[in-house]
Queue: 4 jobs
Job 1
Amino acid sequence: MKNRHTFRYWQWRVIISSMVGYSMFYFVRKNFSFAMPALGDEYGITNTSFGVILSIVGLVYGVSKFVNGILADRTNARWHLAIGLSACVVLNFLFGWSDTLSTFITGKTQGPDFVGTLVTVMAVLLILNNVFQGCGFAPCNHLLAHWIHPDELATKTAVWNTSHSVGAALVSILCGYVIVLFGDWRWCFWIPAGIAAVGVLFIIVSLRDTPQSVGLPELADTRTELDGDDSRKAFRAFVRKKVFRNPVIWVLAVTDLFVYIVRFAVLDWGPTFLQNRPESLSPQLSGWTIAIFEVAGCAGMLCAGWCSDRLFGGKTHRMCAVELFLVALCLLVLHLLPDTVSSMTVLVLLAMAGFFLYGPQALLAVTATKQATKHAASSAVGLIGVMSYASVIFTGVGLGWYSDHFGWNSLFILMSGVALVGGIVVATLWNIRNDGYIHGE
């Protein structure tokens, strides 16, 4: 009984500590979206230029998630997380001085040469930032796979995944007010970086790695072919079988691509879109709107996790299919509404779309974790990360170019079609087994 109580204490301590830690990564990643309108107004940077930057850094982040996923299955999650966040903090402080760096390089404070150099400096800093952003989710997924039994993984991982939405919502509100109160885009980087620096200290003090690192046994009923042989050769063979040669993981990766296209279309371009509607919103209100999209996503993740374990018998992929079809419906309705519809109506429908979208966003990783098992979970999620962040080719430069030439009129019908295709793809997994562990042998 004492051992069970101790395990529960450490399990929830790890879950909560990693939630706080991972939410800090959003403070130093999603702040750029709110600086874009101010940067565009001050320096005349086009949406196409911003789109190119978003596409490049998104692809870098996807590759970084993949590399860090493989590393996370073999490293200490506590220090992996802390080192990555520390680097992001430093780079965000530097980003606030990107115009100063551009002046130092060109000797100018305006003009085409200065703007071109500024775009390049911002791109380089954002690329480096996203290299280290990959140190966020991978070690956290490693922790969840080792601390939560597969039978309750959907419910508790859904709780953990609210850290995505909490971080994005808080930085949306913060940056919305920072732009107005300070009148300077630079503070969108300096203030979040200061908050994230405190998060680094919190991770170091509060977080621990696997149950064995605090003297507790590993989870019951999670036996794999790798148990008893921890050599590099055995690990590589195990990862090849459970991840790279596993068709289920590839289907999940393709589905996540469609999920992230919809998600990033809202998160990256939402503030700009909402401020350019006929019934436009102020920077503060557009920040609150995106924040509510995230908060609704939190509720949706919790609901999806509970329903997966309680109503679908742990078959998280079935819940993903159902919710993606509902996302498509919400976005179709948004497309059919007239441009002059009230902002409150747009807000409610965006909240509903977020509610249904963030279930699959969390549960696809849960499905991959269960299929790849705790020994290759982060590698599987890393592979999915490469595919999901390929979405920025469409949501970054694609939507940036489209908006410059055709406006935003077709945004929601495009995203509705993407969600529908994603639902159809994941539905092909309807009858697969729940996990990849050895049972009854």
Note: The mean pLDDT is 85.
Job 2
Amino acid sequence: MIYPKFCQRLPGYIAKGLMILVTAFWTYWGFGEMYHEGWWGAWYNPLLYLIVCTVCLTFTLVSLKWPRVGGWMLITVGAGFSLWWWGEDLIEGHLSLEQFFGQFPLSGSLVIIGVLFLQEARLQQRLREQTEHSLRARPWWRRNLWYILSLGSFGAIALGFSAYMLPVVLTRVDDGDRGARLIAGNDVTLIWAPEGPGWNWKQPWGGYPSWQSVALYGMEPVGMDDKPGYGWQVGKFATVEDMAQYNLCRYLSEDGLTLMETPQDIWRMPTVDDYVRSFARHGENAGCAWHGEYMEQVTCDILPDKETPLWAPDLAPIYYWAFEEYNEREAYFVSYNSFVNATRKTGGNPRHSYRCVKEP
């Protein structure tokens, strides 16, 4: 029997290799995010983060077995996911070439891989009869090499992340106290608001307020509703001056449990530095310092974690909005593991919250 030439099989090899890489990427992302932001609440919350990598693994195995079916699935899903991923930027007209080429490998590449699998299916159809006997004569591992690589990479990444992260998430400190907390250390001493409108205030739509909603709370009409003339639809966003004048924390009562009709000016929005200097782990201040950089993991004596008294380990938020803005469209936030970053001011979601502070 004549084996197909390498160049004939190259598109199939590329498709299989790329699909394994895509699956490995989403496995890395899925398990990383599961332990980073999904480890809270009901048992099924963490598992939601494994949906994408499980789907990718399924697509990989289907494509290896039936390349024609897998190819069309990948083309359809890749095109659809890309449109969804870029949806808001496309509507706003802000999708740049840098964003396009930076994000294309995450989903759009599935379309290319799908086309390559269709070519592999046509080649297999032509070569099936002449290679059938030769394939049966190969050792088991040679016949199933691509399946071994697919499942092996998935398992290795899953085990690696679990071995590293499970000791961290399973030993988090949660004293159950969701009241006002005095946190002192690292040259900052502040009282942090209790659960309620000043901390982890979930909205009727199921998420937490955006930076813009917090910043414009006191602007007429007072409340969390959208303000006339503001929003991504009109391209106008709250400023740091708006945050100083209208922010929600100004309206908190002394005990931090009630929003008053007029500013009380007892509580305020914390700065990035307030958060960073209050980070802790296992009851010990982490000794962190921020140097004013964007997208920076701040320097710390010990790595902080999502623990009381600053965080609520059993709730979704792993990011807190800060007082400062990064630019016209983006505002700063911090994460429990000592990162300082920025995102859309209108980007409220189930992971971004805030926590008002006051002086002791």
Note: The mean pLDDT is 88.
Job 3
Amino acid sequence: MKKKILLLFCILTALCCMLCACGEEKTPIDPPDPGLTLDQTSLTLQIGEEGRLTVSFEGGKTIAWSASDESVVSVTADGAKATVKGLKEGTATVTASCGELTASCTVSVKESPLSVFLPDGATGSLKNGRLVLVKNGKATVKALSEVPLKGEAKWTSSDESIGKVEYQGTICVVTAVARGECTITVECDGYRASFTLFVGKTAS
């Protein structure tokens, strides 16, 4: 009789353990680490043009940025983002890394056929990519191209509180509004050319 009671007790204990095991929540398995990924794997820039790269990575660790050829591109890091600037024609690989994890972007730099010309005798001086004007001064500049242009040229100022642009096609009148500096850019058919406007100061 005692053996039957003991056997029944063991069976009931086993059943209870099985039921408890079925009711337990399973510990979730962490997903595999996706590693580093960049928002772009290839990028084309013109000389002097800047582009942005952003890395996706969970963990909050420091990202290191580098370029395979610093004479072709420069890289300015800002955490998970970096500004890449084209310096001369060529190709370089920009890499974001954290420990053994890496992600790369191939950057091609091309020379733009566009350039900006300041007619002789005009107010101001355009030299080495810099136009110097006094406040309220004006200068007429012209976009030149080594290849035929099909589209319409568009001129923009990075800060219209310092320098304004009025243009018709490849001809543009730049007006110095206030002391400071800004970038004047002309774009046509995907090509760009730009120069720095200095107002009320001497270009360094």
Note: The mean pLDDT is 81.
Job 4
Amino acid sequence: MKPLTNIIRKEVKELLTPATIIPVVVMAVLFASLGGMIGGAQEEASKAPIIGLIDLDGGNYSQVISSYISANSEIAYNGTDVDVGLEAVRTAGGPAVIVVEPDFTSDISAGIPGTVRVYWIMAGAGVMDSVSSSVVDVILSGAGQMLSARMIEEGASTNSSLILAPMVKSETTYFKQMTMDDISPSTVSGVLSSQSFLIPLVVMLVILMSGGSIIGSMGMEKENKTLETLLTMPVKRRDIVMGKLAGAAVVGLLMAIVYMAGMGYYMGSLQGQSAIDMARFGLVLDPLDYLLVGLSLFLAVLGALALCMLMGAFARDFKSAQTLTMPITFLAMVPFFIMMMKDFSTLPLVGQAVIFLIPFSHPMMVMNNLMFNDYGLVIAGIAYEAVFAAVTVGLSVWLFKKDMLITGWKKGSKKTVRGFMRKGR
């Protein structure tokens, strides 16, 4: 049994390496966090929303609406002043102020749908940020059904269209100091999420394709012993490093240019097909904004490529190099999933710090920030990306001057390489 035990121990030791364990652990944590967010969204949907209620009519039908809304909501304000109601609801963290307009009852009696105005306070564009507003929509729908039932009981109208839809909703959305009339939070969130979904995919594809090729080429050079040959040639290692990094930078720049060309067409399509006239609300990017988007993407790609080169230096062969792209891929996946669920501005301070420290998260949110003129966060992100890229490039230059570039983490290999380098010289 001892030989069998030794073989099993050997196989387990070779398979259970950090390269195989870390990706599984990270994926488990990622999916557990995502499940926790979904559970939190379900819990949020089961809570009564905090709203303001203003009944300017006071008639029979408006009381039906007000009673149903009050029974299914937590009322933070019940008065007549819209501005005071908005401030009270915003302070309480609620999503809306509902106003039953004057002549609501008389309009219905005259055969005209009554008007309910909803002032939405939109905190963020993530999935969890829109849960409370969706609950309010459900409550308003239920209030309309209650009103239809009351009209049928009273025989108030023979107009089937009026009975089925006795009230109309007029909406105004407040989001990031911007007032958008006749727009619902779901419409705004849909447009912004479509952009937030595209850019992370571009970032991950660039990292996977170009970063994977860099790490793979480093592993291949070690496996084929061409790296040793290159390092023994009468070329300064600094020049070798700068040549590789310049090539990576050119690749990143080309990808950024191609991306910006596609994004320009994409934004034009959005403006033509979206339910929002984005130009009417200033939700468009000018040439300077596109330049900032391209710069943020380029720095993220450059930092990713330099980090891939840095990690590829520790690959022993081509096979081991393939697993080294996983940590970088996870760095791109984590902010993608988090910002899909929550807006950056609605994350807790610790969450914002974590997302900010991940350099690949900045191009994922740069477009939404520029649309709402949050230039401070954009500039800070670009500055951080530049520092991160400079540090990774500097570490790559430093590492290329070390014998560890060939030996990797193997013990005793440093002496071997030194002897090899002396013979080569």
Note: The radius of gyration is 29 Å.
